[in-house]
Design a protein that fits this description.
single chain, 14 helices, 16 strands
Length: 431
Amino acid sequence: MISNHKARRLRVVVVGQGYVGLPLAVRAAEVGHHVVGLDVDAGRIKRLVLGESYVEDIPESRLAPLLADDAYRPTVDPSDCAGFDVAVVTVPTPLRDGVPDLSHVEEAARTLGRHLTRGATVVLESTTYPGTTEEVFGPLLEHTSGLTAGRDFHLGYSPERIDPGNPTWKLENTPKVVAGIDPPSTAAVRSFYASLVDTVVPVASCKEAELTKLLENTFRHVNIALANELAIFAHDLGIDVWAAIDAASTKPFGFMRFTPGPGVGGHCLPVDPSYLSWQVERALGRNFRFVELANDINNHMPDYVVQRLVAGLNERGKPVKGSRILLLGLAYKANTGDARETPAARIVELLTGMGAEVRAADPHVLNDAHPRAVGLGGLQRADVTPVGLAAADAVVLLADHDAFDYPLISAHAPYILDCRRRLAGAHVDSL
């Protein structure tokens, strides 16, 4: 039998250095572990080696001392994984034509399997359908290494709960759900994360842990869809949905506040609930109707935003073709540069297809936008100035970053479609 990890400095490998992997790697290094951050993106690793962070939650002031002490070593070389005590996989799990794409998880398992030794612990954090750890990830580790999970090495799952840009809930103070394929694996996984976070929550199986993540994001997805559909109907009925949400939020029990918006983005909501829906259909031959309905509503919110914008311009005697549209906020949420699956991309596509002159401003999303922010790469950028605002036929607030000067926007923009309810006035339409 293999023994549990004792409190000591571990050699940790974190596969994937994105919005989930980088914070995890940095935290592990800060508490005293020796960390290797492995990623296939050579450009990303080059920036990290130079001490440049591309994740807002990890300022360069946290990277510098870890790099100087060799506590954290970013690399593209899989051979640097040799001799690890703990390996954590945080790679993307996208959908391809509605089907889960586990190719990154599978490649990570093969890479780690070539360096896996007896007594080590391997944890999957990537969001996926229940059964992946034991039916896909573990067998690949075993096949590549020649070792057996449970007997020779520990294997577990722990769903990531990173919320980019959240000033209150960070990795270390967010409870961490953990599970293993057997009690010793659970103990090993729990011991590792206990060195990183304040609270560890063990569950009975990896499938329960995998479902936990999908439940969390499906809950959000469905409730945001409810708020979005309410916004559409309330507008047609001449009712202020935002005022109704404010009033309902005064109830101290039985209600949780969700607000409408231009659509959902990031890796979680556009992808994770569909993993659950796909697994239910594959395993049970049944449809997960709540997820399918939420997908339909949230996926079409960018189209609704454009419809509202067209109507607003028509009321002002302006056709969309040739109109100058200024979009504020390209990230999928406030105060972050995360433009993965952002609804702004679909809005840009629709407006440019109609002949509008589209520009955008976002202090967090740089010109080299996230590669999965399809449609934003060639978008012309603009500064938020009195002249630029006044010259726009319409200003659309998509992501309500705190960095925007809202009094300035309100004072100089002739017409505003506000998708986040940050502005007011006769020239402002709220979603």
